Amino acid sequence: MEPLVALIVGFLSARLAGLIGVEALDGWHPALRVGLALLFVLTGISHFHPRLRPDIVGMVPPRLPRPDLLVTVTGALELLGAIGLLIPGLVSWAAVGLALLMVGMFPANVSAARRQVAQGDPLGWRTVLQLVYIAAAVLVAL
């Protein structure tokens, strides 16, 4: 739920800043970029946080090798993608990359829900949230 809050608060804060005169944020598209970037900063950092990392490593399907390395790589990609969303020449590339990353990581959400590991939302709600995040990334990419 925290990533959704980050997306909404980031979007609304950036949109408000645009409305009160911050020209770079004047419009729904730049505001959505900020909200999506904030979401991925939050989730990317969580991949490295000592209390959260074990749960995230536990979400990786057991058949995949080196879950710790996979979590490190995906966390780094999320953080790099968040930065890319804020650099005008990289926005579309970063948004497409993040959308593909979310699609690629979704099986971990399914696996975690089925095995009842890691804290989090049930699979139905995880699916809805993942679709919202992917849709936001696609909108940013366009």
TrEMBL record:
GO terms for cellular component: membrane. Its main location: membrane. It is found in: Membrane. Keywords: Membrane, Transmembrane, Transmembrane helix. It holds the Pfam family DoxX_2. The chain crosses the membrane at residues 27-48, 123-141. It is a multi-pass membrane protein. This is Putative membrane protein.
